[in-house]
Amino acid sequence: MSAAAEPLVAARPRPAALRWLRRYGLATLGGAIILAWIVMAVLAPWVMTYDPNFVDVANRLQPPSAAHWLGTDALGRDVMTRIVYGARISLSVGLVVVLVGGLFGTLLGAIAAYARGWAEEALMRVTDLVFCFPPIILAMAIAAALGIGTVNTVIAMLVVWWPKFARLARSLVITQRSLEYVEAAQSIGFGPVHILLRQIIPNAVGPLIVLVTLDLGQAILVFAGLSFLGLGVVPPTAEWGAMVAEGRELVQQWWVATFPGLAILTVVMGFNFVGDGIRDWLDPHARTR
Amino acid sequence: MTRYVVSRLITAFALVLFATLVVFLIANTVPGDPALAALGDEQASDPAAVAAFRAIYGLDLPLWEQYWRFLQRLLQGDLGVSIATRRPVLDDIVDYAPATLELATIAFFLSLAVGLPLGILAAVRRDSWVDHAARFVALVGVSAPTFWLAFVVLAIFYGHLDWAPGTGRLDPIAFPPDRITGLLLIDTALVGDWETFHDAAAHLVLPSIVLAASTLGLITRTTRAAMLEALSQDYVRVARAKGLLARVVVTGHALPNAMLPVVTLGGLAYANLLTGAVMTETVFAWPGLGRYTFRSAVAVDFPAIMAITAIVAAIFVLVNLLVDLSYALLDPRVVRK
Questions:
Q1: How many CA atoms lie within 13 A of B69 on its CB side?
Q2: B297 and A258 in contact by Cβ < 8 A?
Q3: Sign of CA pseudo-dihedral B84, B87, B90, B96
Q4: B302 vs B63, B69, B111, B252, B296, CA distance in Å?
Q5: Closest CA–CA distance from residue B193 to any residue of chain A (Å)
Q6: What pLDDT digit, counting tens, does each position of B11-26 carry?
């Protein structure tokens, strides 16, 4: 029997725990990674024995050891301490960009879909317009023009971040508004604001949650990229992208650039695992298969 | 069909026009001052020098007039003079574009050549080890920061193992070939300079793998999802019930129907390559548009930033247009709607 024909044959029942682990194991792992990073970020001042900006030139470029688990950088600063402090910036920037940008985009898209007519046209053409710029390049131009600094970089990212939410929200609302329950709500006299906020959005929220989760990883990745290019945080702030940039000439002292990059990789993977898990969970097709 | 194409063309043109306006407004309403950035501290403290600089570059005119002049020159192919390099922006772009084009094209085909088969195989052999491996590769590809991946492969394959050459397009002591197309592989092949050809090819290996990584992840993921969707449809069941070979069912029935989302991704993948090029070129000291964009952004070089953003936006709109048109070819229902 060829492997391609498998879906036609009923799957042999597996123990429930094993099935659950197979389906949501990665999502759980992703959640654990993110939770670990959040805990470390919050507790950073209490669990880290070094100061992230403490310069110790005598101990510069030390390889990983018992005293410095992940080594020290060119100024003798403890790499592990800086990574843990860096989690604070990355996680909060990701959260702010995705929540603010997502909320703005979702509202705009939902209003456009609900209003119809010229308002919808105008709103969606503006969305198309921002959409036709590649995000990083536009964000780079804005960040450079505004001047270097975390707040300015977040503003630059927000400018390019909302359109995908607007598009998704609009298509979701359009699908929902033609369903019967909306008609029912209208016929018993609910106003459009109530219907949008209390009826349509809760019903359409699933795909939005998936996008938010996957996007948190993306936002962290883009912010780290801008920081790497020198358009993010102001030195000497401990930030992952900036740390990779500081260590990128140090091929022999590989630990300076490698570990901050691994931090980015694990966080982004964590959010991707969780996002995929939520998508599977929301998709009835995937659940029954 | 003609009506559809014409209406899409008009929209695309309007979008590009608006895009130039947006770029122009952003460049002019934000606080960074190109005169101060270009002149340096000493000259910038002299008001006369600043005023003279502004007059040369038309920075003292009213905004709408600056935009009008920008549009007029744009139509003549004049993209202005870069404030940082003091050369026409068009010359700069012509100089830098081939390096990026060469790198991005190779990366694009690399990610297609690996991503498509991997995605199809993962869907056909769902939950097998191939599937798990493909998902892992895709996930690392989309999650790993490009700039970090560039550092890691450079440190391993150049720094420690010495299997690959270092940064740049050619060995520092090699003679670059005369410029014909600007694409080193083609230029060296045309004159039969195989030694330089090898050198250029060797320098392309690491950066194109790094650049391909995130696109590869996207393509694998999308292909897998689209194939799974197609394989679960009734017509696939029918085709199998007829007793067709598994190969025929996959390549003849499911694959054509799964191609639509993958084609959409083509546009997105190109966007990824352009943004990825900024990071990759910075780490690999690659003399391409990505590095030029980055340097212009840091120098607040308005003419260069405007020109590049406008060009990239135009490429975007064009790619999207092509995607929409190929949609119409792949799926006749699109036009009838």
A1: 12
A2: no
A3: negative
A4: 14, 14, 34, 51, 8
A5: 32
A6: 778 877 777 787 777 6
Q: Phi/psi zone of residue B58: left (φ > 0), alpha (ψ -120 to 50 degrees), beta? A: left
Cis amide bond preceding A45, omega within 30:
no
Three-state SS at A78: strand
Residue A28 CB partners (closer than 8 Å, separation 6+): A277
Radius of gyration for the alpha carbons in chain A, expressed in angstroms and rounded = 23
Taking the C-alpha atoms of residue A281 and residue B101, their distance in angstroms, rounded to an integer, is 41
pLDDT of residue A259: 92
Q: How many Cβ atoms are within 10 Å of A259's Cβ, its own excluded?
A: 21
User: ipTM exceeding 0.95?
Assistant: no
The token duo for A264 is 């980015």
- Mutation target among A132, A159, A239, A273 for the B interface, most CBs of B within 10 A: A132
Tokens 């900024």, located at residue: B278
Contact list in A for residue B160 (CB cut-off 8 A) is 251
The number of CA neighbours under 13 Å toward the Cβ of A245 is 21
Please write the tens of the pLDDT for every residue from A236-279. Answer: 888 899 999 888 888 788 888 899 999 999 999 999 989 888 88
> Cβ contact (<8 Å) for B278 and A229?
yes
Distance CA A84, CA A50 (A): 11
